[in-house]
Write a structure and sequence with these properties.
2 copies of one chain form a homodimer. The first copy, chain A, has 263 residues and is an alpha/beta fold. Chain A is built from 10 helices and 10 strands. Chain A folds into 2 domains: 135 residues, Tetrapyrrole methylase, N-terminal domain (Cobalt-precorrin-4 Transmethylase, domain 1); 115 residues, Methyltransferase, Cobalt-precorrin-4 Transmethylase, Domain 2 (2-Layer Sandwich). Chain A is elongated. Strand 6 of chain A pairs antiparallel with strand 6 of chain B, so a sheet runs across the interface.
Chain lengths: 263, 263
């Protein structure tokens, strides 16, 4: 008789990667998630090192089912952020993911985890989830935060229609063209547009947004969500321009989410 | 000397509204959220009755700062789901929200809560958040799940580019036109499209998706997320069509999220 099949558990991570003022893990993740994470022996991760750091925080609340050393952590190939890979689900047909899912067919649950937030949302995990669906492995998303959804809630912009557009082009002329097209789309569809940037480029993206977007466009910035130092602010572009500096990047740079709605 | 100003706390709700198999609240919400919710004396809510039910679940874990009877709950005006209100932030300039935020200026935190998931995401809360930003009231999104983000993670579809389009038209001809336009947009932008429906219309929407979308389009359904009976499945439309029935709506009807990616 074979054991019941295991599931692919989508384990939310905290949003405080690298922050000096990271909250206690029980402030931001449900106890049920910590308990399930502590029981897992097989992991597929965006980054093995941050996964071990996560499991150490879990361990302080719920003892792990086995030592960290005995826990298997397979690391996903790095996507090219802002490059071609950011616009599609690169590696969707990656054959090794099928091998990595083999423990589930043998009755063991597998955890999938990102560096921050939900696996598969603005990160490389989606290809593993797609492989699980192809193989008939049950996919179980556990309760947790996405920084994009929290930033949208915090913005007060239209939450009935919104689009996440990932990273904008780094070339100035291309970025301007893209921003103008997205602003027009936002106006026509009354759709909030959401973008992210690598933290050390946040100030440059903010400058580009203020230069390019129309004065009456509503612009929201959410920075360091879930941190005591975190904040989110929404203003018309014209109003942001009157503030100097309009955006003080925290040190060390925190992940930020940028949202706008053309009116 | 005046008290420090209070904040508008965006309090996540569970995703199990009306479900017979609702999990324990500590399975799905962080202790930190329960502790902060228990301390609040002023609430703005999508629905007062479900907010009291939420506070009773909180109370089983953390004692409330005052009795439920003494807790002030103001109820948001109902939006027209699927109607004009669903495509914009209706009531954005509603003057009463400014009055409702007055306790924050007096030093009291205010909680904003939806019937399920995050306030302001696919619900009427955004107008209150916008009013808070206008008045300079600090907005603090607390860690919690959005069913849209969990469904996207669970889909394995493109999480680097996605759009939530809300409710589709109920008129069959209009819905077909809208679906074909969204499928074309999804193909061109490689953008996952996300829609919701009122639970009793889920089976009808599924039938329309299977009839209208191209056979090779990837279609994902997430139903009853966070419930023991919950599931999510992703298949090509052609494959869904080979299953009969393709979609068995649970009883009572659970909220479902529909996602597709044109290829």
């Amino acid at each position: 008789m074979s054991a019941p099949a295991g599931s692919l558990l989508l384990v939310p991570n905290t949003l405080d990667l690298g922050a000096a003022d990271a909250p206690d893990i029980t402030e931001v993740l449900p106890f049920g998630v910590l308990r399930r994470a502590a029981a897992l022996k097989h992991w597929i991760a965006e980054d093995a090192k941050t996964t071990r750091a996560f499991l150490k925080r879990v361990q302080a609340v719920v003892p792990l089912a086995q030592s960290l050393q005995a826990t298997e952590i397979r690391e996903l190939p790095q996507p090219q952020k802002g490059g071609a890979g950011a616009h599609g689900a690169a590696g969707r047909n990656e054959p090794r993911f099928d091998d990595w899912l083999a423990p589930a067919l043998g009755g063991h649950d597998i955890g999938l985890i990102s560096e921050a937030g939900l696996p598969g949302v603005a990160d490389p995990g989606a290809a593993v989830v797609a492989a699980a669906h192809r193989r008939g492995v049950r996919v179980l998303p556990l309760a947790g935060s996405s920084s994009l959804a929290l930033a949208l809630a915090g913005s007060g912009l239209n939450g009935q229609s919104f689009a996440f557009v990932g990273y904008l082009p780094t070339d100035a002329a291309e970025r301007t063209d893209r921003l103008l097209a997205l602003q027009q789309h936002s106006r026509r569809e009354r759709q909030t547009q959401i973008a992210i940037e690598t933290p050390y480029r946040n100030a440059a993206l903010m400058a580009a947004l203020l230069k390019t977007l129309a004065p009456q466009t509503q612009l929201s910035v959410a920075c360091g969500l879930s941190l005591p130092s975190g904040w989110c602010t929404t203003r018309a572009v014209a109003e942001w321009r009157r503030h100097a500096p309009p955006f003080e990047p925290p040190q060390p740079p925190s992940p930020a989410v940028f949202l706008w709605l053309g009116t």
